[in-house]
Specification:
By secondary structure, the protein is mainly α. It has two domains: 35-120, Alpha Horseshoe (Serine Threonine Protein Phosphatase 5, Tetratricopeptide repeat), CATH 1.25.40.10; 138-254, Serine Threonine Protein Phosphatase 5, Tetratricopeptide repeat, CATH 1.25.40.10. It has helices at residues 3-27, 32-45, 51-67, 72-84, 88-101, 106-118, 122-135, 140-152, 156-169, 174-186, 190-203, 208-220, 224-237, 242-253. Helix 2 runs antiparallel to helix 3.
Length: 254
């Protein structure tokens, strides 16, 4: 056989061998961590929330992570499980690693920020929320979350900016409107507050936080007939609320 034919034949054998390896890898071979991840996924799908199941899920996910330390899906799922069972320190460890591995995914920064926020590490939370917003500037949820941290810090101007951006991105965000109403109420901008509370209720009719804000404003303004009307509506939503009952009885005795 001529040398050129031998080279062609050898090349074909190599190519066929490579194709066979690729097919075998994709169909017949699974990475070491995959089998543990699949076990964890099946347990998660059962939606059983007892300690034994949770520990088994975590055990499988940890084995998957040990096998493939840079797998974002494995670590992210483990972090989410830790967060769900309120093991926030461990969730933070996993989310920090995931963010290092893939810093361009906004949701990963958001998840890490939410854990920092729960732990009361506001500065770290703010930093991560800002990173998420930089990647997705029109995400209503991200602006909402950052606005709430500022609200809790009594930084009403900063909170207002973020909540307005949240509403601009999603005009039906009743939650952001309620908190924006709270800010305006704290600043004695009652007409602006009433407007936001009413829009919030229009979007979500059983939103008692907006009712509470309106009731407080009308009480301060001594507009008791409107206050009575709102208390009655609130009691239709939550009939057993002793606070609403007491306020209504007091007003009706006047």
């Amino acid at each position: 056989m001529k040398k050129s034919k031998l080279i062609v034949t050898a090349s074909l054998i190599i190519i066929i061998g490579i194709i066979a390896l690729v097919v075998w890898f994709r169909i017949g071979f699974k990475p070491t961590g995959e089998k543990y991840f699949q076990k964890a996924q099946k347990l998660i799908e059962l939606k059983k929330y007892d300690d034994k199941t949770a520990n088994e899920i975590i055990s499988n996910l940890k084995k998957a992570v040990e096998a493939e330390p840079d797998n974002i899906e494995y670590r992210g799922t483990l972090g989410a499980i830790y967060a769900g069972i309120e093991r926030h320190d461990e969730a933070i460890i996993e989310f920090e690693k995931v963010v290092q591995l893939n810093p361009e995914v906004a949701m990963l920064h958001f998840l890490l920020a939410s854990q920092y926020s729960i732990k009361g590490e506001d500065n770290k939370a703010i930093s991560e929320y800002k990173k998420a917003i930089k990647i997705q500037p029109n995400n209503s949820v991200f602006h909402n979350a950052l606005g709430l941290i500022y609200f809790d810090q009594n930084k009403y101007n900063e909170a207002s900016v973020e909540l307005k951006k949240s509403i601009k991105a999603n005009p039906d965000n009743w939650f952001a409107r309620s908190y924006l109403g709270n800010i305006y109420r704290e600043q004695n901008k009652f007409d602006l507050a009433i407007n936001q509370y009413e829009k919030s209720i229009e979007i979500k009719p059983n939103n008692l936080s907006a009712y509470d804000g309106l009731i407080e404003i009308y009480n301060q303004k001594k507009m008791h007939q409107k206050e009575i009307k709102l208390l009655r509506k609130a009691l239709q939503i939550k009939p057993d609320d002793e606070g609403y009952k007491s306020k209504l009885e007091t007003l009706l005795r006047k």
